[in-house]
């Protein structure tokens, strides 16, 4: 049994992660942490876990965590995560980090977008990006995996295969994305109160969303040339779910059928990517680790639609998928 710890276990992603790990036959959840001084029982924080797990959330040092766990899932906020994780790695733990602290390769880009100096810059370029469909072999056995953001997951899975093949041009890509309110996290914020968010679709962080450099970094690798996407996220008044519509110039005589054919070929053996002919919706993938993708040729544009559950494939399900690869378990364990 692999002993697992979750850092920052009060949020939505931690709740979803616990639900998945509790049905994993090779995992024992031993440790849950909080930065608060109180020690609430997990059932007080996540009532859905009542009678399923008998642990309290504790404020522990990295040394104490490392004594209790083999693998640590980091659900701490950006900038707070790396300082703790570096100590856990030095103590021999493997880590899957949910924050953005290890997703980017360049500490200067990180400082520009997150407005803080990175506490562990030397590890950044050596950390594996945890998108199994693109980096599976690098994830196997890795000591540290950077779990992708939810928006990058949906966008990259739709765009990377067609950039790699040259079916779409790397410049001028526009990504229009919508996510449920859980994507903003659990701490209360005024614009997320029910009277503000209900029946109200709003864009946010236009031109300055922190997932932009993450998307560009990965897409540039697969396009073999720098991309410069325009990414606009929107908050949609539902609990969970995410839909990305991406637009790119076709680079040749592409048809809807040929675009779908390339996606089908690329993802033919992938257990969690479904290339579909219909236009996917968020309910198609809710509470699952699937990503549904389709494509259309409209004029001289390729229109790609990608749908995921932001809390599962966009966070906790991807983490379990990465965990399975790191420890050589069947990749679908606890996810199907």
- The oligomeric state is single chain
* Helical residue percent band: 25-40%
| Residue runs with pLDDT of under 50 for 5 or more positions | none
Strand content: 15-25%
Q: How many strands?
A: 14
What is the CA-based Rg, rounded? 19 Å
Largest sheet: 7 strands, parallel
User: How many domains is the backbone divided into?
Assistant: 2
State the end-to-end CA separation.
20 Å
At the first level of CATH, the class of the largest domain is: Alpha Beta
Shape: globular
Give helix and strand order, one letter per element, not per position. Answer: EHEHEHEHEHHEHEHEHEHEEHEEEH
What's the tally of helices?
Answer: 12
CATH superfamily of the largest domain: Dihydrodipicolinate Reductase, domain 2
CATH topology-level name of the largest domain: Dihydrodipicolinate Reductase, domain 2
Summary tags:
Rossmann fold; Dihydrodipicolinate Reductase, domain 2; 14 strands; seven-stranded parallel beta sheet; 33% helix; 21% strand; 336 residues; 2 domains; alpha/beta; seven-stranded mixed beta sheet
Textual characterization of the structure:
The protein folds into two domains: 2-126, NAD(P)-binding Rossmann-like Domain (Rossmann fold); 150-310, Dihydrodipicolinate Reductase, domain 2 (2-Layer Sandwich). It is 33% helix and 21% strand. The protein is built from twelve helices and 14 strands. The strands form two sheets. Strands 3-2-1-4-5-7-6 form a seven-stranded parallel beta sheet, sandwiched between helices.
